Amino acid sequence: MISPALRILIVDDEKPNLVVLSNLLKTEAQITLASNGKAAIEKAQELKPDIILLDVVMPDQNGFEVIKQLKACEITRAIPVIFITALGDVASEETGFELGACDYISKPFHLGIVKARVKLHLTIARQCIMLEMLANVDPLTTIPNRRKFDEQLEAEWLIAQRNQQPLVLAMVDVDKFKQYNDHYGHAAGDKVLTQVAQALNKQLQRPRDFVARYGGEEFVIIIGDSDLSGAKAVLDNCRQAIEDLDIEHELSTHNKITISAGAIICTPNNGVTSVQALKQADTMLYQAKECGRNQVCWNE
Ligand SMILES: Nc1nc2c(ncn2[C@@H]2O[C@H](COP(=O)(O)OP(=O)(O)OP(=O)(O)O)[C@@H](O)[C@H]2O)c(=O)[nH]1
């Protein structure tokens, strides 16, 4: 059966080769074809295939030039490339590997061997996707975990520092969650955490918005491209979205599940670290709890 998640991009300037290879591999993955280097790069960036089968000898741009561009581009850098080429000499093969190919198959190729090698690399690609997910996603809520947050914060901090743009960080905590667990049970608590995570995620859909589960009943938000009034509106929408879930919580003042948040807007400079900024957001979260919960407190 075809796995819809897997895609192979086959690049060859000779149509008969494209036909043979796509017929051979169409049961393994979805196939996209390109007959020159320029189209290959465009399709690789657009589709982000799991594997690229790349011919070397092509007019205009040869396969070695194409792989250099693929490896230089952030979007396509990690895509495994298998050369499939008439250049069977050892020096060309060595060049192919030096440029970052994961395999090198000489023409005339044997169909069974091509299929076996592609299947092997698809298995590795699948395992990489799985590992990436296990490393970065919180299994209960399916949103990014703290490890991914640390990475994202570092990246956003650098961008904000470079552009001298403000960055918003918020620590979010479910109110009276211990009581909820004690009263409704741990399984019900788990369900609430999932619903809260999904509701926050829905509110944070712009490219540089980010939400992760920080641990336990705590979430953390980064808003990378906003001014204070915009970020205030976003975080209040988050708070309101949780109230609107309307999940009964008899032991809470508000009779339903709510969240508190502590937020900080800062422009990273040499004097402030992201760790200090996060700590300030946590202090504001404490203040939000002290002031009655179900609110966002800001350190402007
Ligand atoms: N169901 C469930 N509970 C969790 C999970 N992780 C942490 N918790 C619980 O979350 C609760 C957090 O409680 P506290 O930190 O005391 O805070 P709180 O009851 O939310 O009170 P306030 O923060 O003051 O509003 C603890 O009872 C933890 O056991 C989880 O994955 N699932």
TrEMBL record:
Its cofactor is Mg(2+). This is diguanylate cyclase. One of its GO terms (molecular function) is diguanylate cyclase activity. It catalyses: 2 GTP = 3',3'-c-di-GMP + 2 diphosphate. NCBIfam families: GGDEF. Signal peptide: none annotated. The modification 4-aspartylphosphate is found at residue 55. Residues 7-122 form the Response regulatory domain. The lineage of its organism: Bacteria, Pseudomonadati, Pseudomonadota, Gammaproteobacteria, Alteromonadales. GO terms for cellular component: plasma membrane. Pfam families: GGDEF, Response_reg. Its EC number is 2.7.7.65. Keywords: Phosphoprotein. It comes from the Bacteria. Residues 165-300 form the GGDEF domain. One of its GO terms (biological process) is cell adhesion involved in single-species biofilm formation. It comes from Catenovulum agarivorans DS-2.
